[in-house]
Amino acid sequence: MVCKQVRFRDRNTNEIYGGIGLFEIQNDWVEDLRYIICGCCGAYIDMTTCHNIEILDVYDKWINISDEIIGG
Predict the structure, then answer these.
(1) This model's pTM is above 0.85
(2) CA 20 to 30 Å from 30, out of 52, 55, 60, 71?
(3) Are 25 and 2 in contact (CB under 8 A)?
């Protein structure tokens, strides 16, 4: 698995969120998005069964969020 930060839209509410995408690397080196951890609520979204999420951006450069997580 490879983790990348993502921006996505919930099609039910039209809200836009950030999160962490977990990508499975296929045999041909294609990255297939399998799960998202929502940055807003920590929900674990299974992209193989969830159809109301639209991926808007996948970021190759990681933004450090460590201080936000630990309250620094």
Answers:
(1) yes
(2) 52
(3) yes
